[in-house]
Amino acid sequence: MIYVVRLAKEVPMSERLEGILRVALIGKDIRYVDSLAEFKALASVGTKAAFLFAASLPENGFSVRWMELVSAILADPNALEGCSGGVIVDGKGELFTKDFARHLIFAANMAGCAFPGRPLVEATGDLYNFNTVSRVKGVDHLTAYGDAVRNLVERLDAFDKEAAREPVSEPEHGAQAESEHVPRILAIHAGNRSTSNSLLLWGMLKIELAGKAKTSEISIRNGDLVDCRGCGFEKCKHFGENGECFYGGVMTDQVYPSLLACDSLVLVCPNYNDAVGANMSAMFNRLTALFYNNDFSNKKIYALIVSGYSGSDILAQQIIGAMCCNKGFMLPPRFAMLETANDPRSILERPGINQRVVYMADQMLR
How many CB atoms lie within 10 A of CB 361? Predict the structure, then answer.
């Protein structure tokens, strides 16, 4: 079943979104959740299902009732344990749709909700964000919007049913486990080992994964990692068909083949001015050529984020937008480990750090 959270009793719903949903949900087993009280009741009894959040936003981008829903999710760390989710945001203006969506996805994920790759459909006021898709498909913007929502509903339904066939269990050990698939986990970083708390954190996690997963890592710190030059679609797609990119370098020599071979990708991300570092950001952009020709929906994205003072949640949302919403990586429950450590090696002194590392390793092995 898909629970369609639309808060229609409390938040005015646009006719456009209402019409799109009516068509997209034909033939699906659904239940509408039209008030915050209904949602809280479902969360309180541990309902495990697919949740499709369908929000209409005013032009100023702020809805008190929808933010109360986000607050309710964050208030209970297990509110959406075992659930899966998708998001539709229909805005009256050109701003705030993605910002709201990333915030909602982050909150739900922290509460145990998994998301398939590309879990977001956003519609700006004049639907201009569908301009390229509508041109490629030869349809108008509204039709492109409807197609995107129907596609999301189908993928969310399939994702939820697949998850239901794979119950969560403790990682197996011994001879039986050895005969099964061993997770292949790739870490990418741009850190300095002598000073980086985030790399120390990855080292701790790697110890916990030893013997249970095949781990590898790539540093994109050394050498030139040129940012995307903005090739046209056809040129970028052409390079990607051969596993290449216009600029080559570490991306095509190491990152592309290793990424295609892994099951899970771990991004090791210190906080630089409330954003991922320049090399990591360039890597996000350079993945476009590979994305055009490969499906990342079976690959999980994880993040180890360390801030010197605060702001780890901002980076987590940045990664959600770039790697899950755009590049299509699957977002497993509680995908990010968010820590605060300033002085070199101070991550080792953070209260409870060892227990959190063990928990993260267990999450990756499930």
Answer: 20
d(CA 366, CA 171): 6
Edge-first strand listing for the sheet containing 2-5: 30-33, 2-5, 50-57, 84-91, 120-123
Rounded CA-CA distance 76/57 in Å is 24
pLDDT in tens, 179-218: 478 999 999 998 787 789 999 999 999 999 999 999 999 9
Enclosing H/E stretch for 99: helix 97-110
Torsion angle of the four alpha carbons 199, 173, 115, 131, in this order, in degrees rounded to the nearest 10 = 70
Classify 142 in phi/psi space as left (phi over 0), alpha (psi -120 to 50) or beta: alpha
| Cα separation, 358 vs 352, whole angstroms | 10
- Spell out the domains of the chain, with CATH numbers in brackets: 2-164 (3.40.50.360), 175-365 (3.40.50.360)
pLDDT at 169 > cutoff 50: no
Place of tokens 């190491």: 254
Lowest-confidence segment of 5-14, 120-129, 229-238, 242-251 by average pLDDT: 229-238
Local structure of 326: helix, strand or coil: helix
Q: What is the pTM of this model?
A: 0.91
Contacts of 124 (CB under 8 A, 6+ apart): 91, 93, 94, 97
